[in-house]
Amino acid sequence: MAGMITALQIQKRNKERVNVFIDGQFALALTAIAAASLRKGQLLSDAEIERLKADDELDKAYNSAVRYLGYRPRSQAEIERNLRDKGYAPEVTEHVIARLRQEQYLDDEAFAQFWLENRERFRPRGRQALRYEMKQKGLDPAVIESTLADLDEDESAWSAIEGKFYRWKSLEEQEFKQKVMAFLSRRGFNYETASGAANRAWASLNESE
Questions:
Q1: pLDDT tens, residue by residue, 16-45
Q2: How far is CA 116 from CA 107, 121, 138, 147, in A?
Q3: Which of 44, 154, 168, 177 would bridge 198 by S-S if both were Cys, CB 3.0 to 4.6 A apart?
Q4: How many whole angstroms from its chain centre is CA 157?
């Protein structure tokens, strides 16, 4: 659709985008920054128009990824999945990922640490559950194992159950411990860790009486 730019109109609903008209017909929309290099009466070839469209697609994908990152840190796989679901081509996604890494918006090791610290603070889980969650986020196995290497599962299990086991204080020892262990098992803690936390909880319960 080569031709002459006959109008540059700011969109009514989005002041940051500009509609470009060529020979009186709508041709494409660009960011205000990209449109600033254009002028009414300028001639554009087919190749130039396609380049503008391609650059705009990259900008839209990048801005979409940054907004997605605005809610919380994300893994690379999450960003890739989000852009794919929005219909962006693989080469566009690849370009966006490279740009995010260059600008230090994307760091899987930092994300893995964020995920671990967030879980430890609000909803402690066992190594098995954390490993599964991180795998679901698309993290590399080496990154996962490195992040979980120093995890103290005994303390995590205690944090998970502390303050909650009092609901079972009326139960006999065996049933009490079964309740605690079942709770921790659902959080991904292994038998040995759950058993140790159950013993600690029972001892703490009796000390407080």
A1: 899 999 999 999 899 888 889 899 999 999
A2: 14, 9, 15, 8
A3: 177
A4: 26
pLDDT of residue 63: 92
Q: Which two tokens stand for residue 59?
A: 């900008």
Integer CA distances (angstroms), 58 to 6, 21, 109, 132, 207, in order: 25, 21, 26, 33, 63
Q: In the Cβ-directed half-sphere of 77, how many Cα atoms lie within 13 Å?
A: 12
46: nearest Cα among 68, 70, 22: 22
Positive or negative, the CA dihedral 99, 102, 103, 107 is positive
The C-alpha atoms of residue 100 and residue 94 are separated, in whole angstroms, by 10
Q: Where are the chain's structural domains?
A: 1-44, 153-209
Q: How confident is the model at residue 208 (pLDDT cuts 50, 70, 90)?
A: low
